[in-house]
Amino acid sequence: MNRSRLIGHLFAFVTIAIWSTAFVGNKVLLAYLTPIEIMTDRFVLAYGALLVIYPRWQLPRSWRDEFFFFVLGALGIFVYFLFENFALKYTQAINVGLFMGAIPLFTAILAHFIIDDEHFSRKLLIGFILAMTGMGMILFEGHRFELRFRGDMLALLGAITFALYSALLKRAPAGYHTIEITRRSFFYGLVLMLLYCLIEGTPLQFAPLTHPVVWGNLLYLGLLSSGLAFLLYQQGIERIGSIAASNYIYLVPLLTAITGVLVLDEQITPMMVAAGGLILLGLYVAQRK
Fold this sequence. Notes:
Structural class: mainly alpha
Helix content: over 70%
Number of helices: 12
Order of helices and strands: HHHHHHHHHHHH
Distance between the termini: 10 Å
Shape: globular
Mean pLDDT: 80
Strand content: under 5%
Radius of gyration: 18 Å
Largest sheet: none
Number of domains: 1
């Protein structure tokens, strides 16, 4: 494996590790803020951070390029996080994690039609089955099982949306800096969030921001989960492709469970250990050359 691909795999893993722990932060914030408020606050922080890191502006080369950035923002920023945040409101974080695990399969199917050099393979299917078996073991383990249809359906729709976003990222217009692409998609996502607030008549609250637990989680979600992680994920896709990068999403249920143990004082069971082994095995099979 060459150095560029190794870095791509590292970026993808770090991204998924950050996103997995973000579920807990989101769940905590839902006690103080609405889903749309969490989305808006975190992406205002993320956009500001990217503006500081890369203050340069690039004029769009064509309206087609700018429309592409709008589509990325609408799918990967607005629609996906709307589905995810409302899903976390109605169902367990582990349920959302399970459907996040289906993203690699959705990405592979969509990339097969969208990207010329991405193909669905037998190894990917076998890896997906192994990983889904492991995630199912985590989901259906005794007291953890709780089916909330509304939240689960929102999580499934979010997984499909993010898979489409991942596949489209590979087709991003050439000649733009990575931060510029991410920042423009954030901009259009924020515009749609503010329009949503205006249409719904939802005023943004500022009083909860005085609580340390609120602004602490928002800083983590905004600067790391939304800012840094999106840059790393895009860099990972450019180096190893959308299918290989999204395969790391298999780790989401396992990492989310570990975060729950550390933050929420949950217990690790033998079933969780076995499930984690299957998830890692599925990831290995799917990535193996």
